[in-house]
Amino acid sequence: MKYKVSQYAKRYNVTTRTVWNWIMAGRLNIERTNTGRVLIIEDDDKKINDAVAVYARVSSSENKDNLQRQRERLEEYCTARGYKIIRSVMEVGSGLNDKRPKLESLLLDESVKKIVVEHSDRFSRFGMNYIEKLMKLQGREIEVVNMQDNDRDDLMQDFVSIITSFCARLYGQRRTRRRTERIIEELSKEE
Question: Residue 49 pLDDT more than 80?
C-alpha cells in the first residue's frame, strides 16, 4: 500500500513533521513519483499491530535535556529491534501524578500496540502491574528497556511528592469538614 505523507500521518495519528523526520532518518520505505512527490510504501504483511510508541518522562523541567536524550535512546532501541514507531511522547511530570495528559492519550490510543519505556518508573511509580494487565486484556503491552533499580535522587523526590500530596489532601479534608460543620450549624439556626 502506498500513502502520501499526509495520509500516513493521519493513519498513525502523528504530525506530518514527524513523518518527514522518520523519512529523513530512513525509518520508512519511500518512493518518489515523476513529479517529485514522496509516497510511503507499507508492506501488506506489516500490520498496524506492529505499531509502537515510545514514552519518555522526567520529573521536573530542570531535566529537559535528559528528556530529549531519553527519547532518542528509546527510538534507537526500537529501530534496532525493527519496531515501527508511530508515536514519540515526551512529558514532564511526577511519576506519582495520575493526571498526565500525554500518557493518558497514549493509553487511550488503541492503535498503539506496544509502549516502550526506558525504566518502569518513567511510566509509573505505582500500579505498573495493574496497567500491564489491563493492557494485556486489549492485546497491548508495555516493554521496559532497562529493568534497573531506581535512582536514589528520583526516589527521594517521589518520597517528598508523596508526603506533600498526602498533606494537601489531609488539610483539604479538614477544610471540607469545617465547611460541612458550618452548613449544619446554619441549617440548625434556620429551623
Answer: no
From edge to edge, which strands make up the β-sheet containing 141-144?
Answer: 84-92, 51-58, 114-117, 141-144
pTM to 2 decimal places? 0.57
Q: What percent of the chain has pLDDT over 90?
A: 26
CA 5 – CA 24 distance, rounded (Å): 13
Give the separation between CA 138 and CA 21, rounded to whole angstroms: 30
How far apart (Å, rounded) are the C-alpha atoms in residues 20 and 15?
A: 9
pLDDT tens digit string along 104-124? 988 998 889 999 999 887 888
Q: Which one is the CATH code of 47-148: 3.30.2290.10, 3.30.1320.10, 3.30.460.90, 3.40.50.1390?
A: 3.40.50.1390
